[in-house]
């Protein structure tokens, strides 16, 4: 990524090179602004964005009338639009009905056990019906981040990896100084896209009104030999604190089962466990 070339003043500095940071970078790169993105790891997409299930959620798993549900439906449409603009072959993975204009989840239908037997023969034969949400899709999460970051860089965004933000000073509303492991940066605006660490960054700017309580998810990835196990994304009814354990056919063709949802103390806890494997295998 970019060499450590520190220009004196940016209009916008984005902290965090996950899916949120790079999509903001790409969007802002359409405007005449000096923009930099600072990422503490050696590569973009090394945070939560690298290790998710890759599902473009259709919006069926959220509490009714919630902000999350509303954004989920908008995000589903936007992700398709971005994928199209970037012209990557996600198109083939997004082989589901076109719903470009609509808000709300389109084309849901209840399918019968006969439909399931025909279309998902490896599911339990006792299932009598299921909700079919054709706008659910699958994406390669890292590919999306890399494609968006390349596009943002072509449009002039400077990206500095291995640049840990350590503290922030503000002198007036439009004059911030950011101290990092790679030098000092000044900017008019800061965008906090630091994911799990967004509360720490916020605290550096003197704002303490939210705290992130980390929750870990383990996924069980099967060999491609098992790629014919299912043909669709299979969701259970949502669990109390998560979307439940999902059977996913990843964009690479492997079947993946998960994730678990476990509250943890340590934001850097990436461990896997026998208990997680058991949960994924016994409660899909
Ligand atoms: C197991 C699991 C499965 C999931 N599955 C799905 C799914 O199928 N579909 C879906 O839509 N969502 C899914 N999610 C949620 C989704 O992955 C996240 O909401 C999303 O990746 C968050 O992106 P982000 O850019 O906010 O955070 P991140 O990807 O974590 O990016 C934040 C970045 O900020 C950097 N950073 C932090 N502090 C600093 C600092 N001080 N200085 C510089 N850089 C810093 C980090 O290194 C990181 O790269 C899943 C999550 C989990 C845990």
Q: Structural class, from helix and strand content?
A: alpha+beta
Unreliable stretches? 89-103
What gap, in angstroms, lies between the N and C termini? 39 Å
Shape: elongated
How many DSSP H or I helices?
7
Structure characterization notes:
It is elongated, with a radius of gyration of 21 Å. Strands 7-2-1-10-9-8 form a 6-stranded mixed beta sheet. A hairpin with a 2-residue loop joins strand 8 and strand 9. The chain is α+β, with helices and mostly antiparallel strands. The protein starts with 9 loop residues before the first strand and ends with a helix. The chain contains 7 helices and 15 strands. It has helices at residues 19-28, 67-86, 90-93, 113-119, 141-154, 198-204, 274-282; strands at residues 10-15, 35-38, 55-56, 109-112, 129-132, 137-138, 158-160, 165-172, 175-180, 183-192, 215-216, 220-221, 246-249, 255-258, 262-263. It has a domain at 215-284. The longest helix has 20 residues, at 67-86. Bound molecules: flavin-adenine dinucleotide.
């Amino acid at each position: 990524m970019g060499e450590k070339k520190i220009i004196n003043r940016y209009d916008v500095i984005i902290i965090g090179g996950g899916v949120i940071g790079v999509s903001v970078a790409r969007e802002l790169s359409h405007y005449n602004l000096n923009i930099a993105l600072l990422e503490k790891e050696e590569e973009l997409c090394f945070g939560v964005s690298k290790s998710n299930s890759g599902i473009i959620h259709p919006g069926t798993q959220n509490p009714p009338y919630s902000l999350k549900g509303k954004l989920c439906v908008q995000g589903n449409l936007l992700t398709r639009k971005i994928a199209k603009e970037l012209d990557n072959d996600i198109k083939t993975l997004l082989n589901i009905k076109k719903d470009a204009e609509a808000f709300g989840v389109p084309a849901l239908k209840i399918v019968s056990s006969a439909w399931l037997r025909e279309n998902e023969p490896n599911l339990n034969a006792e299932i009598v019906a299921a909700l079919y949400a054709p706008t659910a899709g699958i994406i390669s999460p890292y590919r999306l981040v890399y494609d968006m970051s390349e596009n943002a860089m072509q449009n002039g965004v400077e990206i500095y990896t291995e640049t840990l933000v350590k503290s922030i000073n503000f002198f007036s509303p439009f004059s911030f100084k950011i101290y990092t492991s790679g030098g000092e940066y000044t900017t008019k605006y800061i965008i906090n896209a630091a994911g799990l660490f967004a509360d720490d960054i916020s605290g550096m700017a003197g704002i303490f009104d939210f705290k992130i309580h980390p929750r870990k998810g383990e996924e069980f990835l099967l060999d491609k030999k098992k790629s014919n196990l299912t043909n669709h994304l299979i969701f259970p009814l949502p669990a109390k604190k998560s979307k439940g354990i999902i059977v996913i056919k990843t964009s690479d063709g492997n079947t993946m089962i998960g994730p678990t949802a476990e509250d943890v103390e340590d934001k850097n806890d990436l461990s896997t466990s026998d208990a997680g494997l058991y949960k994924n295998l016994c409660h899909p």
